[in-house]
Amino acid sequence: VVYIEKILKTQRVSIIVGGSNSYIEKLVEDHMFMFKYKYGSCYIWIDVGRSILNRRVNMRVDKMANTGLVDEV
């Protein structure tokens, strides 16, 4: 919360990227943050079915493993 308040005090447009939909929903709806009510905001996110998301994540992990992830770790 402290970091969010610091960022918002800069009077710059804040962009939150990444995280799950549940993370964004918590940020928007939770009484501790209350972005929806306290700040002029616009929310854009893509709601993807779990099967599609799992397929994309699996493809990405396979690609990372094939390009040296194991050696890097």
Describe the structure.
The chain has one domain (2-72). The protein is built from five helices and no strands. The model has no long low-confidence stretch (mean pLDDT 80). The protein is elongated and about 45 Å long. By secondary structure, it is mostly helical. The protein has helices spanning 2-9, 21-29, 35-38, 50-66, 69-72. 58% of the residues lie in helices and 0% in strands. It comes from Solanum lycopersicum. Keywords: ATP-binding, Cytokinin biosynthesis, Nucleotide-binding, Transferase. GO terms for molecular function: ATP binding; transferase activity. Pfam families: IPPT. InterPro entries: Dimethylallyltransferase (IPR039657), P-loop_NTPase (IPR027417).
Features:
ATP-binding, cytokinin biosynthesis, transferase, 5 helices, single chain, mainly alpha, P-loop_NTPase, 73 residues
Annotation field: number of helices: 5
Q: What class do helices, strands and sheet pairing give?
A: mainly alpha
Tally the beta strands.
0
What is the number of domains? 1
Question: What percentage of amino acids are in beta strands?
Answer: under 5%
Q: Give the low-confidence spans.
A: none
